[in-house]
Design brief:
Layout (H helix, E strand, L loop, with lengths): L7 E2 L4 H7 L7 E12 L6 E7 L2 E6 L7 E5 L6 E6 L6 E7 L2 E6 L4 E5 L5 E6 L7 E3 L4 E4 L4 E5 L6 E6 L1 E2 L2 E3 L2 E7 L2 E6 L4 E5 L6 E6 L9 H8 L6 E7 L4 E6 L4 E8 L1
Length: about 260
């Protein structure tokens, strides 16, 4: 997605809202402990990031470049393009379910199901904007930049339900790239340095991490570049089930940061 304002919606009638759904507890603080930092061979406008079978898969948008599906060696940072969609659509979130890549598009309403070489196998329609996508093993979980997570059936991408994401202060908007890990959804909050951990059942934000300490690991030149373009924000969450480590990055960032969230 491009630039979008992120705000918290406060309930006008708190008593009515309390009756509508149970209150959420205060989110716990998290910090991200970096264990490894790898420079990419080429940056990209990262929209989706997924770890599978020892490599990273990435979807990029066509800001500064084209919409691509790529494979990244997490040890060397070497980037290999599997498919280049040019400017025919704006590539968004990506996940892998049952050996198939699912890639969203921003406003075109197109959802691609691909093989692991990037070739399109099927195409579906998305009734909303496409931002982030992940899965819990049976359902696809999708964001559209609002305060909701939507659940989709993999067989036909039909919407089967949704949940409002909220904290004690109100709803949380700008849910971007997603990653499902051990019963929770980790989500970037667009235009911020925050990642939230969300219960997909209640919608409550369970924990919040401030990733701004990653700035200390960037050069002055890279900081000037990403600070000078409002689109070059934190985006990209991948989880390695074998190691229990996360890999994080941002749009047109030079580095991949691997580590663990500590509550």
């Amino acid at each position: 997605m491009r630039i979008r304002l992120v705000a918290a919606f406060l309930c006008v009638f708190p008593a009515a809202c309390a009756l509508a759904q149970p209150a959420c507890p205060a989110p716990r603080p998290m910090r991200f402990e970096v264990t490894e930092q790898v420079r990419r061979s080429a940056p990209a406008f990262t929209q989706g990031l997924e770890y599978r079978d020892g490599v990273l898969y990435e979807s990029s948008g066509n800001v500064v470049g084209t919409s691509r599906v790529q494979r990244i060696d997490p040890k060397t940072g070497a980037v290999t393009t599997l498919q280049d969609g040019g400017n025919a659509y704006f590539g968004e979130g990506l996940t892998i379910l049952n050996g198939r890549i699912w890639q969203l598009t921003y406003r075109e309403g197109r959802v691609f199901q691909r093989d692991l070489q990037g070739r399109v196998l099927r195409e579906f329609r998305n009734p909303r904007e496409g931002w982030g996508i992940t899965h819990d093993g049976s359902r696809l979980i999708v964001s559209d930049g609002s305060d909701r997570l939507f659940f989709h059936r993999p067989s036909d991408f039909a919407t089967t339900g949704s949940v409002q994401v909220r904290a004690p202060g109100g709803s949380i908007y700008g849910l971007n790239e997603l990653e499902y890990v051990k019963g929770a959804v980790f989500a970037n909050i667009f235009t911020t340095w925050r990642i939230v951990k969300v219960s997909p059942e209640s919608g409550c934000v369970l924990a919040v991490a401030d990733l701004s300490p990653l700035r200390a690991r960037m050069s002055a030149a890279e900081l000037a570049r990403i600070d000078g373009e409002s689109n070059f924000v934190l985006n990209g969450i991948a989880y390695n089930t074998a190691t229990g480590l996360f890999t994080l990055t941002g749009k047109y960032w030079n580095y991949l940061f691997t580590g663990r969230f500590m509550e």
